[in-house]
Amino acid sequence: MVIDVTSIVKYEGAKLDFMLELKPPQFTFNGIDVLIEAPMQIQGSIVNNGSNLQMQARVNGEIQVQCDRCTAAMVEPIHFEFEELFILDSEGANKDDDSIVLNNHQINAEHLLCNQLILNLPLTFLCNEQCKGLCPECYADLNKAPCNCNNKQIDPRFAALKKLLDE
Ligand SMILES: [Zn+2]
Ligand SMILES: [Zn+2]
């Protein structure tokens, strides 16, 4: 899906409002599979500043991921705003710049959304702040019931102290 900016590229100060619904393909983020089952909304405006087009947009949707601790399937709501610059004159574009050089007066909305999602996803996904996770030995889900493993881990600082006391 593309956003066609032909109508504003020639006129400094011109503004284009847009509202799209699209569903990026599944992707992997920090080793986690991110699934998007329902289309996400991307809504905003693009203003012609003369040498560039400035986009301001907001993304709303949800993603399907797994809890980092217990691996349960969970839904993470996604809401963020972003700004992006598109350079109109590719001759004068600074290659070191993060800005995107615009070709054919078209913005690839799917590509843009995928990049922005990766920049804006949380670093951890937790089904619940108090999620107890899985037992490191038997992999039982400790949210459901404690397991029978003797996995009371000793804090390394106390372990060092205990060693001193034992000596
Ligand atoms: Zn969990
Ligand atoms: Zn266990």
3D structure, described in words:
The longest helix is centred in the C-terminal third of the chain and has 12 residues, at 109-120. The chain starts with a strand and ends with a helix. A hairpin with a 2-residue loop joins strand 3 and strand 4 (32-34). With 167 residues, the chain is of the alpha+beta class. It has a 5-stranded mixed sheet. A two-stranded antiparallel sheet has the order 1-9. The model has no long low-confidence stretch (mean pLDDT 87). Helix content is 16%, strand content 37%. The chain is elongated and about 80 Å long. It has helices spanning 6-9, 109-120, 156-166; strands at residues 2-4, 15-22, 27-29, 32-34, 40-48, 52-66, 73-87, 100-101, 106-108. The protein is built from 3 helices and 9 strands; from the N terminus they run βαββββββββαα. It has 2 domains: 2-131, no CATH class; 134-167, no CATH class. Bound molecules: zinc ion (2 copies).
